[in-house]
Design a protein that fits this description.
Blueprint lengths: L2 E7 L6 E7 L3 E5 L2 H7 L4 E7 L3 E5 L4 E7 L5 E7 L5 E6 L2 H5 L6 E5 L7 H4 L3 E2 L5 H9 L1
Parallel strand pairs: 3-10
Antiparallel strand pairs: 1-2, 2-5, 3-4, 4-9, 6-7, 7-8, 8-9
Length: about 140
Amino acid sequence: MPNKTLSGSCLCGNVTYKVDLPDPPEVNFCYCGHCRKSSASLFDAYVIIPKTAMTIEKGEKMLTTHSIKGDSGYPVKRIFCKECGTRLYGTCDNPEFAKMFDGFGALTMGVGTLDIPVKEMDGWKKAEEYYKDQKVLIKLN
């Protein structure tokens, strides 16, 4: 699968990045309590990529990390811009994540931080089936 390099940024523009994504990327939608609260939405929309796929171009000193124990029992780290609070990406200390991508490890990157038209995202693959059980649980609660 070919890759495509895209640019992204935080809301205030102090942090910018480049990311190599598969073309088209597969977007994940997580409905767990952690993701709903951290995104202040019904779900979190993100792509899982190798840690090596993202490069901070500007503003690395503007980043801060918040860590909390995830549903998996492992620390989940979300990386934010100190100025505007935009969550740019996250990592999890789960050993399974560390094994991903031939041992390079994985991170999750919010698709909302990409500097592309929403129309471009319409053709991306949606990995919604994976989270189908979470959506059912939300309807029951």
